[in-house]
UniProtKB/TrEMBL annotation:
Gene3D superfamilies in UniProt: P-loop containing nucleotide triphosphate hydrolases
Name of the protein in its database record: Type II secretion system protein A
Domain AAA+ ATPase residue range list: 46-188
Entry-linked Pfam families: AAA_22
GO molecular function: ATP hydrolysis activity
InterPro entries, alphabetized: AAA+_ATPase, AAA_22, ExeA_AAA_ATPase_DNA-bind, P-loop_NTPase
Length: 296
């Protein structure tokens, strides 16, 4: 069983609860539909700044990957993740994301001129440039102000450059700081992606199971309720506990996951990161216990 983990046992075509962002598995909760509508509104209206925030593991990055996959051909997109540093460092990230060559010895003015020329040339070819900054809560106030200055490339009725900022709730607090009033005024559209509720957690689990070739009924109603109570409806945490539960079920040759198995999993000390409160809870026992089960 170690090779297939549990996919063969349940007849899945792939693991339904991997942690990697996968647009194919995107579950369209009401909140995700609204978040996508805000993103599309920002694109259609050529908003200079669109902001999407949400708790860790709420599905922000998966949503962005879906947007990138379905972007129109007349859009040039640069994706930046975890950009950090002071003035000039951000511009290096921007040039790299757009495939603009620059010399390490170039000064800031030269780099910005290359960036501005690229944006204008793309517009002349009928394409708008969009910069997507993921984990934007890591940016400093100086970097956010630098982003605002980038939007000055726009002139008149034409918006040549659009920015989409995606981050954790701290990003909203950062943008609301007194020193970023001008930045906040340029935010045309914003949405905060909340966690799933109880019914949403049930539908989310069912959706992923069916997408992987399952029946959607591999988890009992009571098991789903226990998962929701343990995870608070955070998709990433749901994935973690469901993946482990399926390993347990297959190793014990159970046809489904009941609440007793969820309790067994938790009692064995497989505590997951408490991303709801922002604290990291250490496991009592090594993860090897689960891997041993998978190898039995």
């Amino acid at each position: 069983m170690s090779r297939s983990l549990y996919t063969d046992f349940f007849g899945f075509t792939e693991r339904p609860f991997t942690l990697s962002p996968d647009p194919d598995f995107l579950f369209w909760s009401d909140n995700h539909k609204k978040a996508l509508a805000v993103l599309e509104y920002g694109l259609m209206t050529h908003a200079p700044l669109t902001v999407i925030t949400g708790e860790i593991g709420a599905g922000k990055t998966t949503l962005i990957h879906h947007l990138l996959r379905n972007a129109e051909k007349d859009i040039t997109i640069g994706l930046i993740s975890n950009a950090q540093g002071g003035r000039g460092d951000l511009l290096h990230w921007v040039l790299y994301s757009l495939g603009i060559n620059s010399d390490p010895s170039d000064d800031y003015i030269s780099m910005f001129q290359s960036f501005q020329n690229f944006v204008i040339e793309e517009y002349a070819q009928g394409r708008n440039v969009i910069l997507v900054i993921d984990e934007a809560q890591n940016l400093s106030m100086e970097a956010l102000e630098e982003l605002r200055m980038f939007t000055n490339i726009n002139s008149g009725k034409d918006e040549l450059l659009q920015l989409i900022l995606v981050g954790q709730p701290e990003l909203r607090d950062l943008i609301s700081a007194p020193g970023l009033v001008q930045f906040a005024q340029r935010v045309t559209a914003a949405y905060h992606l909340t966690n799933l509720n109880g019914p949403g957690t049930r539908d989310y689990i069912c959706h992923r199971l069916k997408h992987a070739g399952g029946s959607g009924k591999e988890f009992s109603i009571m098991a789903v309720q226990a998962i929701y109570q343990e995870t608070g409806g955070v998709p990433r945490l749901i994935n973690k506990i469901c993946d482990l539960a399926l390993v347990y079920a297959a190793s014990e040759e159970r046809e489904g996951v009941g609440v007793d198995l969820i309790r067994e999993l938790l009692a064995d000390g497989l505590f997951i990161n408490s991303e709801i409160s922002g604290e990291v809870v250490q496991m009592k026992n090594p993860i090897g216990k689960v891997l041993n089960k998978a190898a039995e």
